[in-house]
Each structure stands twice: as C-alpha cells, then as structure tokens.
Design a protein that fits this description.
The structure holds 2 protein chains of 2 kinds. Chain A is an alpha/beta fold. Chain A is 62% helix and 14% strand. A 5-stranded mixed beta sheet of chain A has the order 3-2-1-4-5, sandwiched between helices. Classes of the chains: A alpha/beta, B alpha+beta.
Chain lengths: 298, 145
C-alpha cells in the first residue's frame, strides 16, 4: 500500500496537469470563436462567387471545353489531399482524417486505380503518412490554425498542376467540417475534376430574375470568364476547407482538454480518498500499538 | 441586406467582398474598377455587366462626395439593377497602407521568389510571384493617394 506521502505527491502532479489542460481548454475556446468568425466572414464572398459562376456557366454555350471540368474516361492516378492539424492533443481529430483517407485509397484501388498518392496539409498528417511509408506527393504545413487565402492558393496551384500537367485524373480532399462545437464531421469532397452540379447550382432563391440576369454583358466572353473563375472557385473551396478544419481542430482540442480536465478531477477525488484511508489506517495502527504496549505493562 | 434596391435612381448599392470579410457595404454614387479590358466606371442605371478585374485601384465615390481608393487584387465585378458587387482576393484602403510595411512585404516576396527559383519549386514560385504583384500594386496605389 502506497504511503500517504506517495499519494500526496501524485495528487500534486495530477493537479498540475489539470491546470495545464484547463488552460489549454480556455485557449482553444477563445481561438475557436475567432476561427468561427473567419468562416462567417468568407460566406458572402463564397456565395456571390458561386452565383457569378453559375451565371457564367448558363451563359456559356457548352461546358465541354474546360480542362478543369473534364471527367477522365479511366482513372489511373489519383491524389488524396488530407487536411490535418500541425499539432496533436486534439483527440481523434487527425486520426479520423487519415483513417478516412486510407479508406478512400483502398476503395479507389479496388476500383482499379493503380496510383494513389497523398498531399499532406498539416504536420501531423505528413508525419503519420511518412511513418507508414505512404506515397507523399507534397506536404504543406505551418498554417493549420491560421490559414490565409494565399495558403489555399498554393494548395490549389499544386492540385491543378497535377491534374492538368501531371497526369492526375482525380483529386479528393478529406477534411474535418465544423458542424458544431461538439461535433466535427469528416468530409470527403471531389476537388478535380470540378463537378458540374457545383457550377450549375447557384443556391439562389430568386430564380425569376435569372432570365434578365443572363442578359448581362460579359467582359470578357462568358467562356473565358468562367475559365478564369474556376481556379478562384477552387481556391475558395480549399480555403473554406482549411478554415473549417481550423475551427474543427480547436473544437476537438477543446473537447479533448475538457475531458482531460474532468478525468483529472475524478482522479484527484479517488486519490484523496485513498490518502484519507491510508491516514486512517496508520492512526488505527498507532492506537493498536499504544494499547498493546499498555496491556503488556499491566 | 442593408443595401437593398434603392428607390433613389442616383444611388448604387456597393459591396466590396473578400474571403477575409466584407470591406465596404453601403450606398455610393460611382464606382471605378480596373477590368482586364481597361477601367470601367459604373454610374446608377448601368446596364447589367459581369467583368474580370485585374490588379489595380478601385475607387468608390460615396454619397457625401468622398472618394475612397482601394488597392485591389484581381477579381470579379458584377453590376445588376444598381447593385455593384466587387469580389476580390484582397483589398486595402489606400490611406491605410503603411509604406514601410508594404515595402517590407515586397522585399519578403522577392526573397521568397528568389528562394523558390533556386529550389525549382514551381508552386512556391507562383505563390511568390502573386505576393510580389500584390505588394507592388499596394505601393503603387499608396504612392498616388
């Protein structure tokens, strides 16, 4: 049985740990709020951009001449972009992404896609993929919690280059979507080729205006306009995914740290009980010794 | 929306939106933006227009005749029923541009570009080039204002 002093030392250590996890929980909550604001700030830009895109698509004669929309007949080479955090201590946040990525890889290989490689965004994902010996096309890191639009542009640039020049036939992104503070949802989206439905749906309610809108004068022509707009659409898609992932990372870390803090609390309770019991036992022991000594003298 | 269709024919509802958030959302009398085919000026009752914008400056004349000058990156312009939408990656009010900081950003971009060229990393090169273009444009607009 551990002595009182041993238990006391453990309680102090757990208490210190709890201080740290509680501080991390508070920091994550504060940063989570900022990250949520950034998602909100992107919304008007993103929805108006999609509307412009669908207008351009409707005014363009056909959608067949666009390399970024071209669905390849056979898919031989695919890239999975995994968006993870640069840091751990966020529960299953990073693991979930990689597990889903591996699942997608297995599914594609079963469909006869011979060459599947990864683009790792985030240090944690890059580390795990390298450790497992997975083929890594490229890694991006250093911006998982504070992504900028320029960061997203780099990822897009790489993906687009692979698709148009590097023989890649499909690009998927896997990221944690921020559903709520308590819930992150691993989401898989097809980045390239851009799905037609993404362009043509404009989630716009006032459809009756569409006819008049389509009369807008385009400068340059709608086809060229759309071609220039598509990369920005991809930038926005990736940027949104990065922002959602950043918010989800903070939410996951906050939950993980809250659980750790709670666990530390119950551990302290258990240890305190054990310590009191040990103290009581030693007192009882001493009384017995005193009584036994007195008996022996009489 | 705060800038709903105005009944006053001499007004434009103008919104300048970037991925980092809206920068301007108010009524104005005139907008001048740098389209790829040259500057376009938008006055109330302009015909519907959708245009590509290049790097340059976007000017907004407000109701009290104040001129706001923004250094804007490439983007998109849409005009429909006196609603003007400017979608750009980045925009900064010329008066807010800190010359020293903008110059430092340009130097950083040039250093990044040199590094990317040395290492033969095309993706980093493209990113550095666009950072340099943004920095140059900021300086140019700030100098004029």
């Amino acid at each position: 049985m551990p002595s009182q002093r041993d238990i006391k030392a453990r309680i102090d250590s757990v208490r210190n740990t709890r201080k740290i996890t509680r501080a991390m929980e508070l920091v994550a909550s504060a940063k989570l709020r900022r990250a949520q604001h950034r998602i909100e700030a992107l919304r008007p830009y993103a929805s108006n951009m999609r509307r412009l895109m669908s207008q351009a698509a409707k005014s363009s004669g056909s959608l067949s001449g666009f390399p970024l929309l071209a669905e390849r007949e056979t898919i031989e080479k695919a890239v999975i972009v995994t968006i993870t955090g640069d840091r751990g201590l966020a529960g299953a946040f990073n693991v979930n992404i990689l597990r889903t990525g591996f699942g997608q890889e297995a599914a594609m290989r079963a469909d006869g896609v011979g060459d599947v490689s990864y683009v790792a965004v985030g240090k944690k994902g890059a580390g795990t993929l390298a450790f497992r010996g997975m083929p890594i096309d490229r890694t991006f890191q250093g911006f998982s919690t504070e992504p900028t639009f320029a960061d997203a542009e780099q990822v897009t640039e790489h993906a687009v280059r692979g698709f148009t020049e590097g023989g890649v036939d499909r690009v998927l992104i896997v990221y944690n979507a921020f559903k709520s503070i308590l819930e992150q949802e691993v989401t898989v989206e097809q980045l390239l080729p851009v799905e037609r439905s993404a362009i043509e749906d404009d989630d716009d309610d006032d459809v009756e205006h569409f006819h008049e809108r389509s009369l807008a004068f385009f400068e340059p022509e709608p086809e060229e306009f759309l071609e220039r707009l598509l990369p920005t659409y991809l930038d926005t898609t990736i940027y949104r995914a990065l922002l959602e992932s950043a918010a989800a990372e903070y939410a996951a870390r906050r939950n993980a740290m809250r659980n750790a803090t709670d666990n530390a609390g119950s551990l302290i309770d258990d240890l305190t009980l054990a310590m009191n019991r040990a103290r009581q036992a030693s007192i009882t022991q001493e009384i017995l010794e005193v009584v036994a000594g007195a008996d022996a003298l009489s | 929306m705060s800038t709903g269709v105005s009944t006053d024919q001499k007004r434009l509802g103008v919104r300048v939106l970037t991925p980092e958030g809206p920068l301007f959302d108010d009524v104005a009398t005139m907008v001048v933006a740098p389209s790829v085919d040259g500057e376009v000026g938008i006055l109330p009752r302009h015909a519907p227009l959708i245009a590509l914008l290049k790097h340059g400056e976007t000017r907004i004349t407000t109701l009290d005749d104040e001129k706001l000058v923004y250094a804007t990156t490439g983007g998109y312009l849409s005009v429909y029923e006196d609603q003007v939408l400017v979608l750009v990656e980045q925009a900064e009010l010329a008066d807010d541009i800190d010359d020293a900081r903008a110059r430092a950003a340009l130097e950083r971009a040039e250093a990044a570009l040199a590094e990317a060229e040395a290492s033969g990393d095309d993706v980093a090169r493209v990113a550095a080039e666009s950072a340099r273009r943004r920095a140059e444009n900021r300086l140019k607009v700030a100098d004029k204002a």
